Amino acid sequence: MFAGDGGISGDYFDNWGLVRKSAGTGNSVISATFNNHGGTIEVDSGQISLNGQGYAQGGGSFIVTLGGANSGQSGQLACGSASLGGPLQVKLAGGFAPAIGNQFKILSCSSLSGTFSALNVPGGISVNYSNSGVFLVVTGAMPAQLVSPALSGNNLTFSFATVSNQSYTV
Q1: Is residue 82, in this structure, part of any structural domain at all?
Q2: How high is the pLDDT of residue 143?
Q3: I need a labelling partner for 3 at 20 to 30 A (CA). Which of 33, 49, 65, 77 fits?
């Protein structure tokens, strides 16, 4: 839906399927009355803002990608009140390896009720709830992600991101 930092305006926006922000590190605003009918929201980078309106997750998934520790490199949803009840999926952008202690606010809201019904998050990441949102905290070493694995004859080549002061065994 959003391939950059654009927005949507109008009277109503009914989400029955997928609202996805796939690019851009800024804020994409949905200023129409937002009705989530069990649809999925995916934020790969930057922020989707519901312009102060509430978000009721219902059965739909919330998918967020962590792509870096700088502002806008990871996804976030901003809304008024939030009522959770569906699954959370966290993805890591190709090659990104967050360090122990990194914290990512993935949901910013004026009030929060409920929790995610199921968690699909990489090992080493915990999900923390507060009155004003949901945070991901890196509490343990992240498994290395292979980037661009390729087989050429009998040779396997690949790379992986590293974090300072962490050991890796291949």
Answers
A1: yes
A2: 64
A3: 33
Asked if residue 149 belongs to a domain, the reply is: no
Number of domains in the chain: 1
CA-to-CA separations, 81 to 20, 54, 56, 78, 158, in angstroms, rounded: 20, 5, 8, 9, 44
Model's pTM, two decimal places?
Answer: 0.84
DSSP letter, residue 144: P
With residue 125 as reference, give the H or E element that holds it.
strand 125-130
pLDDT in tens, 39-81: 999 999 999 999 999 999 988 999 999 999 998 999 999 999 9
Domain assignment present for 152: no
> What is the per-residue DSSP string for 67-120?
--SSTTSS-EEE-SEEE--S-EEEEE-TT--PPTT-EEEEEE-SEEE---S-EE
Residue range(s) defining the domain that contains residue 52: 12-142
